[in-house]
Known about the structure:
This protein is α+β, with helices and mostly antiparallel strands. The chain contains nine helices and nine strands. It has helices spanning 12-20, 63-78, 118-135, 148-160, 170-191, 239-249, 263-281, 286-290, 297-313, and strands at 26-33, 39-45, 51-55, 95-97, 100-106, 197-198, 208-211, 214-217, 225-226. The strands form three sheets. It has a five-stranded antiparallel sheet with strand order 1-2-3-5-4, with helices on one face. Strand 7 and strand 8 form a beta hairpin. It is globular.
Amino acid sequence: xxxxxxxxxxxxxxxxxxxxxxxxxxxxxxxxxxxxxxxxxxxxxxxxxxxxxxxxxxxxxxxxxxxxxxxxxxxxxxxxxxxxxxxxxxxxxxxxxxxxxxxxxxxxxxxxxxxxxxxxxxxxxxxxxxxxxxxxxxxxxxxxxxxxxxxxxxxxxxxxxxxxxxxxxxxxxxxxxxxxxxxxxxxxxxxxxxxxxxxxxxxxxxxxxxxxxxxxxxxxxxxxxxxxxxxxxxxxxxxxxxxxxxxxxxxxxxxxxxxxxxxxxxxxxxxxxxxxxxxxxxxxxxxxxxxxxxxxxxxxxxxxxxxxxxxxxxxx
Length: 316
């Protein structure tokens, strides 16, 4: 497979063959689901409910890291947390077909949670606390961390090396990104030692699906080690939302309120990382089609201004 087009060889027939190789019988119905980092398909079956086939981006995670993702999902599911976990075939969750690595999960539908609902936020807080109780049992050995090296330094270098960044903006971007890096480091240093644990890592509303029976979590692809607040802040639109989340959270697990001082730093890290992610993946044909604004100078000008604003907000 080509590094320039990593999924060029992943045809619908390949997807169906991969599912058939697990002893399942696809009925030919395929639905591509929204995913840029990986490729994800809903696959209809003849004699059972549909499954979801997730094909991992080549080179992104090691097999050991993917297996840690799977093990964490299965551990959460075994503890009766509503986490969609991979299916097991012949004792294996990480499967291989025609050079691709993939996993199958049950298909679970739902809608986005209402982040204006105190009841739903408290419910989510309770579930995240229970997730963190499991996450604190043991560390990850092979997955990433919520740190400046991963979420600032690497994406910053990717942007500086990318043709997307207009040459006249390179110096300004470097200064802005370095200001954010220094401000984030200072914010973490001021917070002092914060307990690290296994996290969902990307707990935004799109990764929580709500049904009449309540919520369930999906997509541990960004599971990593970090502070508990990483799994809370993306669900909180304002202080009252965070209060509701923490009201539920603290029914099951104590929360260190000093972690709230990290939220502006985590927000800045995510914004800087987002631009680096697009720059890193631009060779994938799906990215120019999905993010055409990244080819425009004005978007990068605004991004540099935003980074300076974030650094100002952090006190840099």
